[in-house]
């Protein structure tokens, strides 16, 4: 199920064998009953078909949105069971957080400007543990330093062109992706050096930073990442042209990603290796698993 949440409380759901089903919550003066108890709703719930808007569109009164959203979600969970991946998406610029629903495996949430740190922490403390969480908005100084958000296993951040240092330095999970978020070279250097010397980020398996505008081929920022500066101030190693390239694999949601690289970093103490790639428009850091790149592990003590 894919729910799209916006100012007009429009709902868009994708599930199972259906292509889509669209639910719109908005004020209406007419009295339309629900004799068929659509989605398990009581007959007294105002409901009508919006043929002029889109096929398979059902409209409800806006003031009923909380009850309608909860009711439809419970109905679909009972109908399809746990075999369906349910996702919540709150649309950009909405002023409200989406309702908290059980059995949701992933969420893509716009953080409204008017919410305080305390309100956001209370909301996410009540939020169910999920496989994937994406947050968008102006996110600097929006969360407390030890926020539950930073303990998400898989976190994706869209900071709308603002700097992402705060989110990176507070992250305690395993997979972190930034899109449309700016970074200073010094922050990347700090991250790599702390990981190498066992001073931080020991749980991080993947870090990806993309300076492109999302869903576009444009570059958002005038200042790009400086590969030479980052490598000069870290212990990133480089394979010789005669040496085999490094192969690293990781999973992004349900998709397995594969990459070859010639740059890497070896952590002090345990000799754990990680691939490092820095380009003007993006940065990638991926920790190897125990079976990857064993042909260079002998260099870990050099």
Automatic annotation (TrEMBL):
Q: Which UniProt keywords apply?
A: Membrane, Transmembrane, Transmembrane helix
| Transmembrane regions | 12-30
Report the superkingdom from the record: Eukaryota
Q: Which PANTHER family match?
A: F-BOX ASSOCIATED DOMAIN-CONTAINING PROTEIN-RELATED (PTHR21503:SF8), F-BOX-CONTAINING HYPOTHETICAL PROTEIN C.ELEGANS (PTHR21503)
Q: What is this protein called?
A: F-box associated domain-containing protein
- Naturally occurring in which organism (per UniProt): Caenorhabditis remanei (Caenorhabditis vulgaris)
């Amino acid at each position: 199920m894919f729910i799209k949440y916006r100012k007009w409380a429009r709902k868009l759901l994708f599930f199972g064998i259906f292509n889509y089903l669209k639910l719109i919550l908005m004020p209406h003066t007419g009295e339309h009953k629900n004799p068929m108890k659509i989605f398990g709703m009581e007959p007294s719930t105002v409901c009508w078909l919006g043929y002029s808007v889109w096929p398979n569109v059902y409209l409800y009164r806006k003031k009923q949105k909380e009850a309608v959203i909860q009711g439809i979600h419970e109905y679909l969970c009972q109908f399809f069971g746990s075999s369906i991946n349910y996702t919540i998406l709150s649309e950009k610029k909405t002023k409200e957080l989406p309702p908290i629903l059980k059995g949701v495996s992933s969420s893509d949430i716009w953080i409204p400007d008017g919410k305080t740190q305390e309100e956001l922490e209370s909301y996410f403390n009540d939020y169910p543990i999920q496989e994937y969480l994406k947050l968008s908005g102006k996110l600097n100084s929006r969360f407390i330093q030890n926020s539950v958000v930073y303990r998400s296993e898989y976190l994706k951040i869209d900071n709308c062109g603002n700097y992402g240092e705060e989110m990176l330095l507070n992250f305690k999970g395993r997979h972190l992706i930034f899109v449309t978020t700016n970074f200073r070279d010094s922050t990347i250097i700090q991250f790599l050096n702390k990981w190498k010397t066992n001073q931080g980020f020991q749980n991080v398996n993947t870090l990806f930073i993309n300076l492109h505008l999302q869903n576009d081929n444009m570059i958002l920022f005038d200042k790009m990442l400086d590969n030479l500066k980052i490598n000069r101030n870290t212990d990133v190693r480089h394979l010789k042209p005669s040496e085999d390239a490094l192969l690293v694999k990781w999973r992004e949601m349900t998709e397995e990603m594969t990459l070859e690289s010639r740059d890497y970093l070896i952590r002090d103490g345990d000799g754990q290796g990680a691939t490092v790639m820095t380009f003007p428009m993006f940065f990638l850091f991926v920790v190897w698993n125990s079976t990857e790149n064993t042909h260079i592990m002998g260099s870990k003590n050099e």
